[in-house]
Amino acid sequence: MSLKYALYTGCTARESTPELLKSTLAVAKKLDIELVLLDEASCCGASHLQDFDDFLSLVLNARNICYAEMLELPMITICNTCQLNTALTKKRLDENPELKERVNEKLGEVGLEYKGSVSVRHFLYALIEDYGLDNLRKKVVKPLSQFNIAPFYGCHNIRPSELHHFTNSTKESAYNPTSLDELIEALEGNSVDYEHKNKCCGFHVDLQAPKTANRLSGNALVDAIDNDADMMVTPCPLCHLNLDVKQHAASREVGRDINLPVLHLPQLIGLALGCTPEEVGIQHNVTEVNIV
Amino acid sequence: MEKQKVTINVFRFNAETDYLPHYDKFEIEVSKEEVVLDVLNRIKWEYDGSFTYRRSCRHGICGSCAIKVNGRSTLACKERMIDMIELFGTELTFDPVSKNRAVKDMVVDKSDFWKKHDSIIPYLVADIDEHPESENIVPPNEAEQIDEADYCIQCGCCYYACPVVNEANEDYLGPAALVKAYRFNADVRDGAKKERLKIVDKLGKGVWDCVKCYECTEACPKELDPMSKITKLHNQLFQEEVVQKNVASRHAVGFKKSIEKHGILDEGMLVAYSEGCAVFKHIPEALAMWKKGKIVMPWEMPKSKKLDEIKKLIKISSTAKF
């Protein structure tokens, strides 16, 4: 099996979560997945540029997809919000020829054309749908059987479900998601069932409403701890910033001592595949990961 | 499936007599035609006459029968039991849309919902001739701008699914009121657009407090995608030049500035631009991140390849001003 993707890293993986890019590349290497980095890509607008200038955001996101189309490779993302904005752009353009034409008019000025010829999926679903959990299970050399691991799905991978179903063959339910749980089980970890696993971390109001963000993150962390989690795992670096980097602030807001290691999805996979903690960038995690 | 046996745990509470709520368990055989409301009716008619819930039209129009099934906002007259079983299995829990607001069983106090609804000028403001010579016709393309927001039935499914309203900030207007604000703002006959925008621009209660989780879009039984209406209100704030210059609006605009400069986002610059002088409050957090190698220094800031192309596209594709 030889899998090859165009990787849209997003911005955080190149700045505040270097461990995400590092661990993604390490996992790909272990699984013989070839990744071509889309270095031409710009920021997706993180669902904030859209609030200011929706059309500009469509043009920039379509441009990013153009570079995967030129490589003729399926595009993968490693951030839920990149996934939302890229896939939503694709859906809107693919379903609306008039809008697609308006966007292509602009792209034409720089010699590009959005065709709609490649898929846009998060790495999590590409792994499940293309590589397969059974194959992944065979590659596990350090089973995570001694750990209770709380999956934190992050909003933009599972909602809106209409977009999720447009993008993925994995028909995940927004109310009862299972993919991340199944992946944890494939790594022989024990997945923790808790109410907040598909809830919001509040990242998008971090600046203007930190109390809201800290409260939502805190509620999720506390819920995981109360259900005996030893650690949490998330496929989204923005969730990770709130749950890991800002864990102190969340702890203060909800009035509970919280000390829960939070791993990026590829960090967890990497460890189970036999990468060293250093190779998956554990040294960059703010909340100490003392269990590996 | 012809018939299926289900166990339903039903939230029971009477604010007048009970200190705490409890759950009653019912084993019921449901058929494939039955919707959730049919089961609510059967619980009342066949098992316990004191069971209380709101219902009226049974056709997805009155908006009174919303409850939560296994935590999912559900318009009881619209959702089939077999779909709930497919989603959650044969052990189901019926709760009111908001346990905190429970009055009796499934009935909740919706006063905060309606108060917020009333606060956004939820009616058409227009000088209309009392004795017009002909009808006031809105052409189809202008009516379409409302984007079906007028189909909202005020059931509250989105409002009680919103984590901001229910877990963090009870002052937030919430998706239903914002959809209503959009409905009238998108109406070409209306003359109170700016007034409404000033209300939804307020930090602490308006559009800037939305966390973009899409719970409302997922919950809406009329499939109105409230999240997209909230985005359109944001867009109107800039188009109508109502938007206040503050941390939230600068944050949205800052993305464009950063992409213009680097292609990818300059996280540090974005926070500094958004916060202004208040950026200093982020220093402890920034230090913790710096120690862990999570801060890229300005002189090391990576740039997208073909940045000139991005700059040109921004120049020719921009549609908004700040």
Can you describe this structure?
By secondary structure, chain A is α/β, with parallel strands linked by helices. Chain A contains 14 helices and 8 strands. Chain A has helices at about 20-30, 50, 55-70, 80-95, 95-110, 125-130, 135-140, 155-160, 160-165, 180-185, 210-225, 235-245, 245-255, 265-270; strands at about 5-10, 35, 75, 120, 150, 190, 230-235, 260-265. In chain A, helix 3 packs across helix 4 (about 80-95) and helix 11 packs across helix 13. The mean pLDDT of chain A is about 95. Chain B is of the alpha+beta class and about 325 residues long. Helix content of chain B is about 40%, strand content about 10%. Chain B is built from 13 helices and 7 strands. In chain B, a hairpin with a 2-residue loop joins strand 3 (about 65-70) and strand 4 (about 70-75). In chain B, helix 10 runs antiparallel to helix 11 and helix 10 (about 245-260) packs across helix 13. Chains A and B meet through helix 2, helix 3 and helix 11 of A and helix 5, helix 8, helix 9, helix 10 and helix 11 of B.
Condensed summary:
The complex is a heterodimer of chains A (292) and B (322). Chain A is an alpha/beta fold and 292 residues long.
Structural descriptors:
heterodimer; A: 292 residues; alpha/beta; Glutathione S-transferase Yfyf (Class Pi), Chain A, domain 2; Rossmann fold; 2 domains; four-stranded parallel sheet; 48% helix; 10% strand; B: 322 residues; alpha+beta; Ubiquitin-like (UB roll); Fumarate Reductase Iron-sulfur Protein, Chain B, domain 2; 3 domains; five-stranded mixed sheet; two-stranded antiparallel ribbon; 13 helices
